[in-house]
Amino acid sequence: MPEQREAYEEILGRLNRRLRALYRCTSAFFQAESEQELLQSICDILVAGGEVRLAWIGYCEDDAEKTVRPVAQAGYGLDYLEGIKTSWGEMETGQGPAGIAARTGNACWVDDIRTDPRFSPWRVAALARGYASCIAVPLITYGRPRGTVDLRGTLNLYSAECNAFDESAIEHYTGLATSVAYAVAALRGHLAEDLTSGVTALRARTERKRAEEALNQAREELARVTRVTAMGELAASIAHEINQPLAAIGADANACLHWLAADRPDLDSVREALTAIVKDGHRAGEVITRIRTLLARSSVAHEPCDLSGVIQEVLPFVGPEIGRHGILLQTSLAPALPPVLGDRVQLQQVLLNLLLNAVEAVREVPPDRRRLLVRSIGEQREDGPWAVVAVEDAGVGFGEAAAPRLFEAFYTTKPGGLGMGLSISRSIIDSHRGRLWATANPDHGATFHLALPGMR
What we know:
Heat Shock Protein 90; 3 domains; 49% helix
């Protein structure tokens, strides 16, 4: 029958398109050199396959709105993503496919955007761009030998046809999302063997390992150079912090000589002065030790860390700079943050960078706005405890145009700035399986947040 043959050819054509797209995606898994390159390649391939009009991948943020932030997109109507808000929370903007998939860990789809009530917040914008149906698939895997891999994100696809995502399509894209999750995890350094198994891939695995080791060494050195640069910016403050105890030591030593030269030395005063000399010597030594630790070429060794302790270790570096500009520093640290597994020096570097940025943001504003707040809280989430730190300032803030580029490498708003601090900071937090993001304050300034999973 001609009708049956036509239907058969349509199904066969669809399967062929999916097979070609899957082949190209598999190639991207092995060839991509970065997480961003991989995610963008997947979106480009899916749109080029002809079955979807728009493809985008979003990651869950831990801000107040629980935003699903697009990190890669391709297709028709990319301005659609700029004009909508998508959340993984329980609010109205979290009742669409992306929010439900992120919360439940299961695929969610809309057969007809025109009539499905869950899609009402985005209906007008979607129909204006020719979207008729859509699906969101979580980037998560279950029950594998190496445990669950959860990127806390979704793969989102939009079609120009209603009912485009039938059972076979859902199964296909769920499998693809699983592969994407493992590929990203491999690029993050956790599941490389899963993507390079097999005798024929042995050589590729060896070369990839060498390349990753070289890349990691380059990243570590770049991070160290950034720490050195930060220390250079604080040189005057550090010198002041060391000079204070050294000056006190000199004064106490002269006093001791004076008392010992007397016919009847005042031994109690001498003892008191010598005690002060020892105390100031330790104080100067601690400053030097902190600097040596932060500037050292240290290996990336993850061990249990108390984030409140890391904050307390970093604050002395910026203390003199804060005092010099008349800045009010306040802290609100949770008494019992869940311990995290991380590299202490790298976490110090991230916090130091956030604090230096905050100091720069407030030092030129009116005196009543020169204030910083460092706060930490513990949060209990579905996947366990998390430690969350925020650095809030009332400074110049950032505009909407700058927001998407804040964490891009070499992007800076500072005269003479390198534009690497926030980019490196985010890569460090990503390597700790955490999140780093920024929000604009309602009145003045900005708040930078970092969240790290507690030890399990």
